[in-house]
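Same chain as my last thread, 95 residues:
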Amino acid sequence: MKGYVVCVYKNITNEEKLKEYAVKARIAVEKYKGKFLIRGGKATANEGESSPRTVVIEFPSYDEANLFYKSKEYQEAHKILKGHAIRHHQTIEGD
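reply #2:
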């Protein structure tokens, strides 16, 4: 089964830090064979609160998606974003 990282942003307070984070995070995504399916873009909130940004990344497996999140490369990127965004980040197994 594939693994998906789903990240729904609630608030972004520093767009420059988000850009810096994205550059570093991409390195980890590529290392763990991830493929971006959604990176922001036009959105309609049909239920619940709207989000300023949503990201979905597909990985070959659930385990690979978790390795990505725990990797040194991703954690270095994650530190850049700390204090500059509030988000819901989860790894999900799927088809």
